[in-house]
Structure formats: structure tokens, C-alpha cells
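Good morning C.,

I know you're traveling, so I'll keep this short. The sequence:
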Amino acid sequence: VWIDGGIHAREWISPATVTWMLRELVENNEAHPDLLDSLDWYILPSHNPDGYAFSRESNRMWRKTRSEHGSLLGCKGVDANRNWGFHWNEGGASDNKCSDTYHGPSAFSEVENVHVSKFIEARKESFVFYNSVHSYSQLILLPWS
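The C-alpha cells, ready to paste straight into the viewer:
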């Protein structure tokens, strides 16, 4: 089982929720021992730690990573949620480096996505569930790719 949070820096409740889920699994194991006894859990509370820190210190609504991609206007970062390789840049994202939905110069241009992808790829046969926790809307969105 893979659970991550905080891919969008400004969604502060997401890492907190994922951390709560981890605590619930560990500290209340007696309520659901089958979850820990029969499954391996991989939990990443903050997928985008640099963006998260920047949103706390400088710009509350910052969403992207903090990477540098040569913007003439000094715009930084990539929407890491739109930086995955599957159907990269086929819609729903922007080519504008200053946009909150900028997909990056190439798929997996962000180090965060590269590391998560390699970790998951090495264990892909053993995953039964994947969820990236967000805080936008009141929906449960599961990946389709």
C-alpha cells in the first residue's frame, strides 16, 4: 500500500492527514491488526518538502516544487502532480513556466517524482493500492494510470 501527501505545497492538511493515518495504523493496531500483519505500507507524508516549506515561510498559496527551469520572468517550480510520465503534457497542464499547472520541461524533470517513481517501479508487483492525498474538494480521487 502506498500513501503520499503534500504533492501540492499549499495543501497543508494533506501531510497532516497522512501523518494521522500513519499514527492510526501504528498506535491503534489492535483495532485493525490485519492491516499491518498482511500488508506492507509505504507512507510519504510530504512529497514536495521544499514547496511546503516555501508555502509556510513566504507564499501561502504556493503550489509547485521549487526547482529552477530558466524562466525569463524568474518563475520557479513545476506542478509535480502533472510531471509524471504517463500521458505527460497531453492536456490539463500548462506550458507556461509561471502557471500553477506548469508540467515541467519534461516528464520526471522533478527529483521528487523521479525518486517516487523509481521506488514504486522497483516494487510494482507488490502494490495493491496507491493513493495521493490532496485537500481540494470533498472527493476521493484514485489514479487512473
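Safe travels,
E.
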